[in-house]
Design brief:
Chain lengths: 197, 197
DNA sequence: TGCCCGTGTGGCACCGAGTGTCAATCAGGC
DNA sequence: GCCTGATTGACACTCGGTGCCACACGGGCA
């Protein structure tokens, strides 16, 4: 089923991958902001205009998957029995998503992300979109009144979980990838929820 | 002491205020993204080029104070005795900042902020700057080892507090300002720290 | 009063991101 | 071999933002 739907879609996927490859190489080599779209396009052998038919913005090259990963997280979350309490369920769902690619590359990309304001902003924006996807399920787990739109509980819990993931990433980058990301996340959540503060 | 340091600075402040006034009127009237900088400049009676000598970006007209408010929050936090535990101290410090302007205007601005991606992104970016300012003091309150850069506790707590403020604002806007913002914040933090989840 | 200096100002050219339009191209079905 | 529809490249345009330069104006000084 995956990749035999005609030459069109296949070549489109190929171009897509090629742009990503070329762009990432340029980004890591000379920096995100220093790389212009014209440069990416000409290096990838397409026109400037065509580039924008594959990616809406330059940031999307780096963060394109993030929104889809939100859907993955939602599916993962919905697959976890409702008897599992919110925090544990969120932790399981988020981990299922975040760990896939090569650690070394991931560190480089993360460094770039945390060091480039426009990228950081977009990534946070996309993480916010996760919130919408995950909140309904957490409401169920909380047994909250689904009609009460002014109950901040589920939103707060989801947003905090995502924030902890972000903080963990920050510390991870700061420590040059020496710490374990999962462990950092666990400690972040623990310290937020620790009663002794 | 405030405003008698010569004609230059006084007139500069006047122009600054005038731009803000004019721009806000246009924003609330026809939307943020639909308002162009040329329009703001010509309405305020200055050149396009001069506009950029007062504001680095269009977003800064709306969010200009936010970074300064971070410093205010830091000062407020540092004025609270170290014996007060982190969460309470953060709550007090953040409240001292956020409640000042007219509620009706604030609601309009908040609606615009949560409804305009680029504004939302920038506001998050600026809130991140708050983090850097508040973390050191929270580390003190936690009695954390100041040399241990890989301890995520203080960062997580500060980030979560700010996130809860953000979530509260979101719900507040969603409910058209009917709820009490402070109350929403309190409930957000409570639900995050509630042990029964 | 007349001069100089520093700062704010406007105008201009320029860059990069992103969009609308249109004609040419090319794969695939008939 | 031809028609159709999606893809492409080229061009022009908008908008946000920056660098540069010449000019005007306020304030201090002789």
């Amino acid at each position: 089923m995956p990749d035999d739907d005609g030459l069109w879609k296949r070549s489109r996927r190929a171009v897509y991958a090629e742009i990503t490859r070329v762009a990432m190489e340029l980004f890591l080599d000379q920096g995100f902001e220093e790389t212009t779209i014209d440069q990416i396009a000409s290096t990838a052998g397409i026109s400037r205009r065509s580039f924008f038919r594959y990616f809406g913005t330059k940031e999307d090259i780096v963060l394109g998957d993030l929104v889809d990963q939100g859907s993955l997280a939602r599916e993962a979350l919905e697959a976890i029995p409702l008897s599992v309490p919110p925090w544990q369920a969120l932790q399981d769902a988020l981990w299922q998503v975040d760990q896939r690619t090569d650690q070394a590359v991931m560190l480089e990309v993360a460094k770039m992300m945390y060091g480039t304001p426009s990228l950081r902003a977009r990534s946070i924006e996309k993480h916010l979109r996760w919130q919408e996807q995950l909140v309904p399920n957490i409401r169920l787990r909380l047994g909250a009144d689904p009609g009460d739109a002014s109950d901040p509980a589920a939103d707060a819990i989801v947003a905090t979980a995502i924030t902890c993931l972000d903080v963990a990433g920050q510390i991870w980058v700061r420590g040059d990838g020496k710490d374990d990301l999962k462990e950092l996340y666990r400690r972040a959540v623990d310290s937020v929820r620790s009663p002794g503060t």
